[in-house]
Amino acid sequence: MSRNASPTGSEPRVTRRITLARSFVLWERLWRATFPASIVILLFCAATLFGLFAVVPGWLHTLILAFALFAGALALYQGFSHFTLPRWADGARRLERDNALDHRPVSESRDRLEAGGSDPFAEELWAAHLARTLGGFGALKLKAPRPGLWRADPYGLRFAAMALALGGLFVAGGDWSNRLASSLNPRLLFGTATPTLDAWIDPPAYTGDAPIYLARSGKTITVPEGSLAQLRVHNAGTRPRVSMEAADNARFDGKAGEYSASVKLVRSGALRVRADGVRLGQWQVRIVPDMSPVIAFAHKPEKTPQNALKLSFTAGDDYGVVAVRARITPVGRKAKPLEIDLALTDTSAKTLSQTVFRDLTDHPYAGMEVDIVLLARDAAGHEGASKPA
């Protein structure tokens, strides 16, 4: 008998099992071929994720990268020098070994008659023999792929390299992609300057507070609501990245290594800046909310001998009251409220006590019974109201 390229009499279930067995064999061969190179790649990635190239000089970074590329390429060349794709016969033999089938009944199903091939009776008898043989196996099983790397790696170096890479991924956190990209960055490879950061926080102008200059990292920073973090990165090979819990939608703009960002701090949390795989700064920010002003009548509204309205009140705010007005509404009538601004003697004082006189005798509401509410506003636009009088 001789081999033919097309199967004769193979059952569909056997054909499917052979295809699956070939995929198992392919996986085993690929894993064995890439095994040495994968250790080199994993070790290089681990060094990158742990931040090694952020502290070593550029020439050493270049040397390590060149060695990793050469070693990886050489390992791949050697691993694939004898690599072949699994054939149909390889899958059939794998199926026979996993099921302990003697006399190669699966792989020989592609045999054809050499003698008597023109005899219809002989051919029919041969086809019946194949169908009986292939149909009598029952359930065919396949064992899990076995690349057999323990012989090539008896000390389990591949597991150590994998553990280091996973540990580096945990250390790098959300900056893993930036670190991996920077490991191939020629700007760092040839010894250019390490990125630097100038950072400070500008409190809102109305607070009167001075800017807060930030060290690379420090204790929790307490800032007023509405503060802006000003970030300036120099000598960056790639666009810096802001990792924020304390802000939203911030990104750096710039080019030629110089980047800047203005970040509005909207909540308490962490603020981190990274560039070229280097952590340039990390801070915990605590936002102090701007409280609404408070205001109250010091005395009931009164009438002066000249029939003017006399309003006495006290007001206060954490950064100062900038405006006060009175809202006057007729009682029991659907009418538009009258709002009048009350002049303040000091618009920056955190507390004030004042009496204001307004002549409203010519207004249509004069002589009516009214409710008066005092409204105080601060520089942030927050407003507080008194109880009605």
Largest sheet: 5 strands, antiparallel
Describe the global form: elongated
Low-confidence stretches: 1-10
What share of residues is helical? Answer: 25-40%
Secondary structure category: alpha+beta
What is the typical, i.e. mean, pLDDT? Answer: 77
- The total of helices stands at 8
Nearest-angstrom radius of gyration? 41 Å
User: How are strands sequenced across the largest beta sheet?
Assistant: 4-3-6-9-8
- Quaternary structure classification: single chain
How far apart are the termini? 114 Å
Strand content: 25-35%
Number of strands: 19
Q: What are the secondary-structure elements, in order, as H or E?
A: EHHHEHHHHHEEEEEEEEEEEEEEEEE
Describe the structure.
- The chain has 389 residues and is an alpha+beta fold.
- The chain contains 8 helices and 19 strands.
- The protein has helices spanning 12-49, 58-80, 88-98, 120-135, 149-152, 157-172, 176-182, 186-189; strands at residues 2-3, 111-112, 196-202, 212-213, 221-224, 228-234, 241-244, 253-255, 258-264, 269-275, 278-288, 294-297, 302-303, 309-316, 321-330, 338-342, 351-358, 370-378, 383-385.
- The strands form 5 sheets. It has a 5-stranded antiparallel beta sheet, with no helix packed on it. Strands 5-11-10-7 form a 4-stranded mixed beta sheet, with no helix packed on it. Strands 12, 13, 14 and 17 form a 4-stranded antiparallel beta sheet that branches.
- Helix 1 runs antiparallel to helix 2, helix 1 (12-49) packs across helix 3 and helix 1 crosses helix 6.
- The chain is elongated and about 130 Å long.
- It starts with a strand and ends with a strand.
